[in-house]
Amino acid sequence: MSISNRITEEIPAAVITLVTNKLDECRIALKPYLLGLTEKERQELFKMGNKTVSTIQKVKTYIDTNPEFVPSYMQTVEFDKDVDVVNQLTPIHNVAFQLASDLDDTRMLVGSEALAEALIYYGAVREAANKGIVQAKPIYDELRERFTKRNTPKKE
Length: 156
Prior knowledge:
The protein is an all-alpha fold. The chain contains 5 helices and no strands.
């Protein structure tokens, strides 16, 4: 198995601290305006996609230009606020989503690289233990639990 190490530099602790602090600042600044949802609430809500955003913008324009069609029971002030908040949060969401995606990809890559190297070490310890090297046996016994393939039942 050939190992390609694509991540070769450590991230300086100062950079991690800086980024963590800035993300905390963002979270704290937005906290009064953000809400959490339960899984059930998420499932029950109307979902907004790219097409829906343009539809909402179009409806807003029509409400502004043709208010005679607005029903008396529609809360247009709240609608306008909701549209404004969507417009405010969308660019922040896009940046945060890209950052989260890049973080996830990088964590996955370095995790894979680290696991590949760990498997090399485990293989060497296993071979040493099998050849009777006493010092390798306790290491092998402990690591074996982590590296043994588990048979998962097949779904029918």
